[in-house]
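ok so I'm stuck.
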Amino acid sequence: MSPTTSIPRFLLPQRGLIWSKSSTTFQTIRYASAKAKPAKKAPKQIVLEKPAKFNPPSHPAKKWKEPRQYPGPKLSEEEAASLKHKQYPNMMPPKGTFMHWFVNNKSIHLYITLGTLTTLAFTVWFTTFQRNSPFADMLPAGSQFFLHPIAYTRTFFKVLKLTSDYNTQETIERRKARVEDVAKRDAYRKAHGLDKQKGFGGWTAKSDDEVL
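replied:
not stuck anymore, here's the structure
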């Protein structure tokens, strides 16, 4: 029996030659009846067959060339410049013309749009003023604006002032009538003793005797 079997393991040192195991070596033995594998041959280099003649590729690289001028030779500078100002049917006007400036100018389009909107707004306002003003019969005819623009404008502002004063006076009277109506209701409630009743706004539940 080996000396390590009678001694507990925890009493022995954790490291030391006693715990080292002999490394086992494996030796490959080839018997005489076994056949050795043949060594792999190096791959042969692929050699392309020499062509009988030179065959260029079917799609060669494209090279930049000047565009062909049909039907004649290249145009001169004067002829090329004249083409820029030539008017073609169903096409935008060429540069340097009045129509090209008018179509591509943003400022003039802005003025035209704002002017059109302002004219429409003034027309609607003037039509409503003629229909609702009680002094519309004092306005001169529209043709007088072109014959006597100063007199027409002066008369128009007078009628506008009269209409404004009339609307102001009507509003004051309407407010005065409402105030008088509220005062009459208050006097009526005081005369009948309704102001002494409790409740929100004098509206409370009444008994049968009070209703009768």
